[in-house]
Amino acid sequence: MSRLFMFEKPLGMRDTLPELHDAKESVRSSIEMEMKRWGFQFIETPALEYYETVGMASAIQDQQLFKLLDQQGHTLVLRPDMTAPIARIAASKLYKEQIPLRLAYSANVYRAQQREGGRPAEFEQIGVECIGDDSVSADGEMIALAISSLKKAGLEPFQLSVGHVGFVNELFLQILGNEERARELTKFLYEKNYVGYREHVHSLPLSSIDSQRLLAFLDLRGGPEVIGKALELVENGKGRDALDELKILWEIIEDFGESSRIKFDLTIVSHMSYYTGILFEVYAGMIGFAIGNGGRYDKLLEKFGKTTGATGFAIRLDRLLESLGDLEPPEPVTCILFSPERRKEAYQMAAEKRENHERIVLQDIRAVRNLDACSDAFANVVFLVGKEGTQ
Amino acid sequence: MNKQLTIAMPKGRIFTEAVELLRNAGFELPPEFDDSRKLIIDVDEEDFRFILAKPMDVATYVEHGVADLGIAGKDVLLEEERDVYELLDLKISSCYLAVAGLPGTKINDVAPKIATKYPNIAAAYFREQGEQVEIIKLNGSIELAPMIGLADRIVDIVSTGRTLKENGLVEYETIAGVTSRLIVNPVSYRIKDERISELIKRLNEVIY
């Protein structure tokens, strides 16, 4: 590796400069406020966790983890998501009373990037987890809260696509007979390779009805009518259960008054094995990447020794900001330029204005080399220079 | 919501066939399409915008969402591994990826070298074979590499096999078949789903 420039940062790491910092803060606080209004409690967890616990339990692939060693030789990871740390806390501490827990976070997570060096490897996620609630109402609440939070952040337009991993698993298992074959086919969905999916289906020794069922599965996208179409594809109880859940979910979102925001897409498989039920992704019109996703992950808490259902979602703050478009202009700052003889007057004026929630910079005029540039940098400039009483 | 569809088209070999396919599917593309040096062509009647990109870059435009859809060779998709939906096999510009070299030669045991435009595909292929090789990335005229002793084998696309033959090379193994694919950005696939489904339906009728 060539010698580093002194201003360089590790690959994928970014500084947040004042204007962006302000914008981030204002978006973050409007979302946090909304989550608090829904009764979610914010928590913090350490940036470093054990690889063997949180690192292994996380949904993020191994090669994307930042790993390091502690002094005892344990492998540590920089947390790649917040769901696994929260599951760790919930299982060990908080979830004692068997009452559903509603937790929230806004935190930086770390994922090493493989391609095109500039992609952020550290980014902020805002999200919630609802632990210990198996009901579809909890899934619906996650979706409604995601919608409500994004509205509060001022995002428009945006849309959610909702799927159900349980349905996919059941349908594939019914038709293909065993887990391994089902997983093989699911992999094509996960890789978004529909051409490969179709070729694979044609290559399997299936009855023409069964191949047709698998091919028709790819078209299960759209409004509530999708559930009816999906029902025609399944035979036994379990796949139906998943569809019943989706039907109830639709009614729940209608009761929240937000059904125009969601569409069904039963082909969504956000992860090979992490999610267990209803799952969703959030899309904004302006950018080509999902800005958030969520779903039910009933198996995760088992890894930490508790058997209970959980669901949640996370929004990527950087992508949300990108889709919000132009940053709002920063709040105006007034600069009081003072000379030593009027220092006290300047301090008093500043104190009064700050009481009024104005942003005030106090600047000794003797330290200013370029007065014009200094004046241009602020919305207002007040000169308290020379004898008292003159301006 | 802006429902205009932006389609990234690959310049060069695939372009003519792709345009023909779209015309067969009933899309009114202006004559300027056939010999235009423009990089962006708007077709207002259909509410389409076409961008003309290097074939290797099509999937990149689509992944970032500046193009909703694109037409890209399977070779590009295998090499680039972009996060896009591969929706349709357009069955045009058919060719295949192959390993080739000088006739009657073996891969050098001491310093095995493979020259290619597709370093990821080549690396993955030889790893699967359990061969440890050094991959040398070239940007064109790959056939030159074995002829002047830069590499023992090349990995490249072969359509008629004429270029190989003319340069005295022979094929050793086939890696994968290649045709052009319709690819879609994951967000566009959801947000502009109606227009995209319509496009797919029309294309589906003229493929095969």
From TrEMBL, chain A:
Leftover remarks: This function is generally fulfilled by the C-terminal part of HisG, which is missing in some bacteria such as this one.
Primary gene name: hisZ
Record: residues binding L-histidine: 81-83, 111, 125, 129, 274-275
Sequence ranges assigned to domain Aminoacyl-transfer RNA synthetases class-II family profile in this UniProt record: 25-340
Protein name: ATP phosphoribosyltransferase regulatory subunit
Superkingdom of source: Bacteria
Subcellular locations according to the entry: Cytoplasm
Function (record text): Required for the first step of histidine biosynthesis. May allow the feedback regulation of ATP phosphoribosyltransferase activity by histidine.
Secretion signal, residue range per the UniProt entry: none
Entry-linked NCBIfam families: hisZ_biosyn_reg, PRK12292.2-4
Automatic annotation (TrEMBL), chain B:
Domain observations: Lacks the C-terminal regulatory region which is replaced by HisZ.
Keyword Transferase (UniProt): yes
Species annotation: Mesobacillus subterraneus
Residues annotated as domain ATP phosphoribosyltransferase catalytic: 54-204
Keyword annotations from UniProtKB, A to Z: Amino-acid biosynthesis, ATP-binding, Cytoplasm, Glycosyltransferase, Histidine biosynthesis, Nucleotide-binding, Transferase
UniProt subunit comment: Heteromultimer composed of HisG and HisZ subunits.
Role description: Catalyzes the condensation of ATP and 5-phosphoribose 1-diphosphate to form N'-(5'-phosphoribosyl)-ATP (PR-ATP). Has a crucial role in the pathway because the rate of histidine biosynthesis seems to be controlled primarily by regulation of HisG enzymatic activity.
Superkingdom of origin: Bacteria
Compartments, record wording: Cytoplasm
Catalytic activity: 1-(5-phospho-beta-D-ribosyl)-ATP + diphosphate = 5-phospho-alpha-D-ribose 1-diphosphate + ATP
Keyword Flavoprotein assigned: no
Pathway linked to the protein: Amino-acid biosynthesis; L-histidine biosynthesis; L-histidine from 5-phospho-alpha-D-ribose 1-diphosphate: step 1/9
GO biological process: L-histidine biosynthetic process
EC number: 2.4.2.17
GO molecular function list: ATP binding; ATP phosphoribosyltransferase activity
Record family assignment: Belongs to the ATP phosphoribosyltransferase family. Short subfamily.
Name this protein carries in UniProt: ATP phosphoribosyltransferase
Top class in the EC scheme: transferase
A cellular component term, taken from the record's GO annotations: cytoplasm
